[in-house]
Amino acid sequence: MKKIISIASMFCFVLVLNAQEKIQYIEYDLPNGIHVILHQDSATPIVAVSVLYHVGSKNENENRTGFAHFFEHLLFEGSENIERGEYDELVESNGGTLNANTSQDRTFYFEILPSNQLELGLWLESERMLHAKVNNKGIETQRSVVKEEKRQRVDNQPYASFITEMFLRSFPNHPYNWVPIGSMEHLDAAQEEDYVNFYKTFYVPSNATLSIAGDLDIEQTKKWIDKYFASMPKGQAINLYRDYLAYDNTTFQTKYGVEKNVFDEDLFFESTDKKAIAKINEFSNIPTLVKRTQKDSEPIDGIIKDVVYDNIQLPALFMGYKFPEQTNADSYALEMMNQVLSGGTSSRINKAVVEKKQMATFAFSFNYALEDSGLGIFAAIASKDVELDDIQGEFDMQIDKIKNELISDEEFQKIRTSIEANIVGMNSTVAGIAENLANNHVYFGSAEMTNTFLNKYLSVTKEDIQRVAQKYLTQDRRVILHYLPKEEK
Amino acid sequence: MKNIKYSLFVILIPFIGWNQVDRSIIPAAGEAKEIKLKDSEVFTTSNGITVILSENHKIPRVSINYISGADPRIEGDKSGLSSMAGELIMSGTASLTKDELDNKIDFIGANLSASENSIRLSCLTKHFSTGLSLMEDVAKNASFPKDEVNRIKKQAESNLSATKSSADEMANNAVVKVNFAGHPYGNVMTEASLANISRDDLIAYYQSTFTPQESYIVIVGDINRESAENLVNKHFGSWEGKKPFKKKYPSTNRNTGGNKVYFVDKPGAVQSVIYITFPVDMDLSSSDQIETKLLFNILGGGGFGNRLMQNLREDKAYTYGCYSRLSLTDNGSWLSAGGNFRNAVTDSAITEIMYELKNIATNMVSDKELSMTKASSSGRFARSLEQPSTIARFALNSIKYNLDKDYYQKYLQKLNGMSKEMVLDVAQKHIPFENCNIVVVGNSEIIDKLLPFDGDNNIELLDPYGNPKERMRPSDLTGNQVINNYLMKVTGSATMKEVLKKNKSIKTYKEVTELSMAQMPGALTLTKMFKSPKTSSMKMEMNGMVLQSGYFTGKKGFNQNMQTGKKDLTKDEVEEKKKSFGLFPQLNYAKNNITVEAIGIEPKGSDEYYVIKIIDGENEEFQYFNKNDFLLANTLSIVTAPEGGEPAENSVEYSDYKEVNGILFPQTQIMSFGNVTFSGTVKSNQINSDIDFSEFNEK
Description:
The complex is a heterodimer of chains A (about 500) and B (about 700).
Chain A: H1 2-17, E1 26-29, E2 35-40, E3 46-53, H2 67-74, H3 86-92, E4 97-102, E5 107-114, H4 118-131, H5 136-155, H6 162-170, H7 184-189, H8 192-202, E6 208-214, H9 218-230, H10 237-246, H11 249-256, H12 274-284, E7 303-310, E8 316-323, H13 331-342, H14 348-356, E9 360-369, E10 374-382, H15 388-404, H16 409-426, H17 430-444, H18 449-458, H19 462-472, E11 478-485
Parallel strand pairs in A: 2-6, 7-11
Antiparallel strand pairs in A: 1-2, 3-5, 3-6, 4-5, 8-10, 8-11, 9-10
Helix pairs in contact in A: 2-5, 4-9, 10-12, 13-19, 14-15, 15-19, 16-18
Chain B: H1 2-16, E1 41-44, E2 50-55, E3 61-67, H2 81-88, H3 98-107, E4 111-114, E5 118-124, H4 128-141, H5 146-163, H6 167-179, H7 191-196, H8 199-209, E6 216-221, H9 225-236, E7 260-265, E8 271-280, H10 289-300, H11 307-315, E9 322-327, E10 333-342, H12 346-362, H13 367-384, H14 388-400, H15 411-416, H16 420-430, E11 437-442, E12 460-462, H17 479-491, H18 496-505, E13 508-517, E14 520-531, E15 535-542, E16 545-552, E17 557-561, E18 565-568, H19 571-579, E19 595-604, E20 607-616, E21 619-626, E22 632-639, E23 648-660, E24 663-673, E25 676-687
Parallel strand pairs in B: 2-6, 7-11, 7-12
Antiparallel strand pairs in B: 1-2, 3-5, 3-6, 4-5, 8-10, 8-11, 9-10, 13-14, 13-25, 14-15, 15-16, 16-17, 17-18, 19-20, 20-21, 21-22, 22-23, 23-24, 24-25
Helix pairs in contact in B: 2-8, 10-16, 11-12, 17-18
């Protein structure tokens, strides 16, 4: 009897321990439209300063693909007050670290600094937002850096072009048609006008989310944010200022009808000349609007089957299914479905295709969830002398199985554990929290999702998993790519 | 009316103005924050474990780290025992095979790992109890399965072969050996010591190390005191281990008679690895460690601003990087300053590093250096605190070394309070700039330049593992004589004429070798074929997948691999190939103006070897022939890289010669390419069988 009680009490305490502390934060908008999110955590005297610009490759002109990512590189080149090469140095010599990344949907910049350098981080990001400065040398340098990056990450990696090929065929009528790395020819063709327009269109306060997490004093931080970010005007006035910096007097006058010298050179936005004041006010009232892309739920046009020749030895199979946008209620069940199929070495695809039948050297599936749409991708690199059609047959059997049978309790338990471990890990650093809060604000319209994500997953049932498998794994609508060695062409 | 409106508008302007700031001013740093580290709880178990608990409920995850209370021991002729035991602890327990253990860990999404004196678990709070059961099993019942012991020993063998081609590893071995003679830190595994390690030794080490007495358990994360105490008592409270091994060794071993030069020969090296090194009398309880770390950061830690980097890279361009590193540990600490330098500037580099050591120990550092180094050090310190393992380490250090209660809390303030005077004080105390150990790994051609640095004009030679080595003695035979003896030996011939005749009778040759790699499971198959006069091929496969292949007709050919695809041989490569064909490339040397030079006779272990240098234009190869039987023991080739890249080094060790059709073939071949090592076992040698090149023919 005693034993039973102790086991029961043990059980209770496990449940108690499981309650996760909520991530607390405050959020507000500046008059110029910047959305601010602040999360205070003083456990470590560091602070992560991040700015998310809601611009990714899907906002690019189809003749300038790769531009969003290229632009990310350019924005480390300097500003009106930061010399070329000084940006990195300022961060590193003050004990910090920095980086950035670009997806189809957004561009994200961050610094992790000692918390007593928070003001420096805010200044750096505000410089980038207000008046980044790029010269031709910088453009040339970054162009070759980006080309090198593409060579390393895509061209020289066997099979790596499958994402490009898959999106190309799955999204004929949406800018997901191309991927963030884009086209090097387009980058070569870019003119000065392209850079200026991109900056003026997307790098404006109303398109930015400033997310800061770490050891910070909320009131002091707000003051600094006012100083460096709220001091930027709203609307198109920021672009009036940028043109003032960039244009000679004649060009400026032709465009705006006033001479440059009516403005105060050092305190542009506090110019006292009446004409200047009028201009600034006029342009503050013209909003900066970013044209948003539409959600894409257009089904794949039947079975699209193609062959891609690559520098490879072993043929490979890639299959793509149209999944919904990441905010769709079904995406949680789809992610859990994917865990059953491909989460870890004991998952169904790995056990069946790789270990038991040894049809493939690698086989896996994953969900590519984006703001406007998504793809579920199945991939396998064939073992020697195995036909791709046979691997497809095996994949199809696995797909039938998950559509026709509920998953086992044991599998269900395992995927819940792994999903939970993954989500918990996402919030283990202040940089991770800053990023999650910003992402969730931008994509879900709710930073609070950071606290409720796990519940969404944990409320998925085995039946839900079966239902979404039936709904989205459409065998008559999918892209099937065969990767074959170039010599066989 | 219109006017009024307008004037109102003007009046309003200042109020809705943007308070523009002077953006040209870079914001200054605020005051360094006090670190709010939560106090750790400490309790002990009845069987002698000190448990340190650092609660952090931010995320529902817990990590627990067991650290043995045993002292490191001198391993002597079994050097490497402890590190090998550490690798094997996760290889299975009395009730679980390695696969079963791995699966159970995966099922709860946990991380469980071990080292030579610790075991660490990290998982979600709700799986902590399950995870602890696995950790308990590993701590108490690791079974050291025979096949796993063999696997890890094989892996260690490959790593040892790689050591001999890694100047950096050889330098590290030499550094610990010269600083820590007669001390456990001087344990460096050799082929001989590896062979001496038995499964029983491993088990004995495990039992006298993984034991509760005097050990520590550090728990960090989402757990309260009561649960922690219950769980530790449940899983480890009744653990009855053996007595831990205890013995302290003096930690410092400084020179007294001036600087001492140690040289490790790396044939053909075009760069020297230089470390100026000395023990530092300090451990984690020393009160002057903050200023000492600051001192060595200014000298050569971290980024570009430090003195060694400024002088040797920015100013003199002797190197890509020159650093100093303070290794601060429980049982002994040391400093190493140096980097990689071109042969020609080896002596100048030593002069400059010695100058910097003396300078910083005799003159005050500048204000700017001090403040910049403080800034980057405090940033690094602060960022490291986000890792729960850092907090755990601090909690442990505080207890173990009896540090002030607020030592880490106040760390940044203390760091910022350091003055130039304090830095000079520790520099004078810790830098013996006239009694350093100077370790150089490099080309023996530069050794004479090092003599002036040695206090007693007597450079000590070390082998790749840092053990004293005898000097090479002059060869009694010429290079060609040694090679001819080798050729006669392997072909079973009495004269060179007979060798040529036998060679001519070989029309085809095929060799299949199975290769295994330490870092990778599964075997690779290497197939080499040759057909007289000059056709040859190679193919490397894994599970039927061809990773790499090459083919040469005598006039043209190609190489192919998974990354770059198929590439035809260039004109230069064709010329290269033409020189080296058949079973005995040595037979073609004379025709191709390849020179052969006997460097000397080198003692190694109980045998002696003729060292022969083969020079072909820019490329060099060294061949080592056993003096007893003239069999080729190993080759070492240096391939210069185009465009100023690092030269690559390939080495092959040959052993277990076996006779096939009257010719001796090595059955074991250990190949190292850079830092990748393959252990090869020959599966077949076929002479004059039918061979088929059709798979290589152009389609």
